[in-house]
């Protein structure tokens, strides 16, 4: 499932390519992907101009000049691609939005969705989300107070969207590795130094993921050579049995609260 760096990567690309452009046509091939009858959905979106692209947690928001919003959550297997019919991936598209010569394809949204929402509905959807970890408002002091109250394992705490928004399976393992902490450690048992290390690891790893275009295995447009590069730069995730990049011990794969978890038992304490 795409996490914060992947969705932020999409956001930056679409900001460059689509802001200020008019939606000329909308095609829906799977009605369950949207939240309104097809005719109503198409009528509300077609002819509108895209004025902004925002991200909140693992969601992307396309803001229309009508004041309404298209909210996308890719969930497991969802992807987006911008291009033409000729260069688009040979995968099932649930929704296609035409910006003239450029088509924005929503792909593999069997679990994901594209909903048309008012600002009030959008705010209600985001009500329970935790802070954005790359926001200036996400401070060490605030994090320090919050993490001390968490009695669960760091792995489950970091992926809890009510605690921090946007972190999932992959980056939680990478963050714990960067902080030199085992994913099974409890938040309320960390020392002051460990809490600080964890906070800075969150910043470092999410920015690192973004610098490599995240880990999605498909480019966002034809000449996109960045998206997905993080898959080749993971420290521990999906690297079971490989040498730890820090101490050369074998990376372990385990399960924690039914989630696959990767770590180095030698240099994570």
Automatic annotation (TrEMBL):
Its cofactor is Zn(2+). SUPFAM superfamilies: Glucocorticoid receptor-like (DNA-binding domain) (SSF57716), N-terminal domain of MutM-like DNA repair proteins (SSF81624), S13-like H2TH domain (SSF46946). GO terms for molecular function: class I DNA-(apurinic or apyrimidinic site) endonuclease activity; oxidized purine nucleobase lesion DNA N-glycosylase activity. Keywords: DNA damage, DNA repair, DNA-binding, Glycosidase, Hydrolase, Lyase, Metal-binding, Multifunctional enzyme, Zinc, Zinc-finger. Residues 2-112 form the Formamidopyrimidine-DNA glycosylase catalytic domain. Residues 235-269 form the FPG-type domain. The keyword RNA-binding does not apply. Gene3D superfamilies: 1.10.8.50, MutM-like, N-terminal. It catalyses: 2'-deoxyribonucleotide-(2'-deoxyribose 5'-phosphate)-2'-deoxyribonucleotide-DNA = a 3'-end 2'-deoxyribonucleotide-(2,3-dehydro-2,3-deoxyribose 5'-phosphate)-DNA + a 5'-end 5'-phospho-2'-deoxyribonucleoside-DNA + H(+); Hydrolysis of DNA containing ring-opened 7-methylguanine residues, releasing 2,6-diamino-4-hydroxy-5-(N-methyl)formamidopyrimidine. The keyword DNA damage applies. Its EC number is 3.2.2.23, 4.2.99.18. Belongs to the FPG family. Monomer. NCBIfam families: PRK01103.1. This is Formamidopyrimidine-DNA glycosylase. The gene is mutM.
């Amino acid at each position: 499932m795409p996490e914060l760096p992947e969705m932020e990567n999409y956001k930056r690309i679409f900001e460059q390519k689509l802001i200020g452009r008019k939606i000329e046509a909308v095609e829906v091939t799977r009605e369950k992907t949207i939240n309104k009858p097809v005719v109503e959905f198409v009528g509300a979106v077609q002819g509108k101009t895209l004025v902004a692209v925002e991200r909140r947690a693992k969601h992307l928001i396309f803001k229309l000049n009508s004041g309404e919003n298209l909210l996308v959550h890719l969930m497991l297997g969802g992807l987006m691609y911008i291009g033409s019919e000729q260069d688009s991936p040979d995968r099932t598209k649930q929704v296609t939005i035409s910006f003239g010569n450029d088509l924005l394809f929503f792909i593999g949204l069997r679990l994901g969705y594209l909903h048309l929402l008012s600002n009030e509905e959008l705010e209600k959807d985001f009500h329970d989300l935790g802070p954005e970890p790359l926001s200036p408002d996400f401070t060490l002091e605030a994090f320090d107070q919050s993490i001390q109250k968490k009695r669960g394992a760091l792995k489950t705490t970091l992926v809890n969207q009510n605690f921090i928004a946007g972190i999932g399976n992959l980056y939680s393992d990478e963050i714990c590795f960067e902080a030199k902490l085992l994913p099974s450690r409890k938040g309320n048992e960390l020392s002051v130094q460990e809490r600080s290390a964890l906070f800075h690891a969150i910043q470092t790893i999410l920015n690192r993921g973004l610098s490599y275009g995240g880990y999605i295995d498909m480019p966002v447009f034809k000449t996109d050579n960045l998206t997905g590069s993080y898959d080749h730069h993971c420290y521990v995730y999906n690297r079971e049995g490989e040498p730890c990049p820090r101490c050369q011990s074998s990376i372990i794969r385990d399960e924690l609260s039914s989630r696959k978890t990767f770590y180095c038992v030698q240099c994570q304490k």
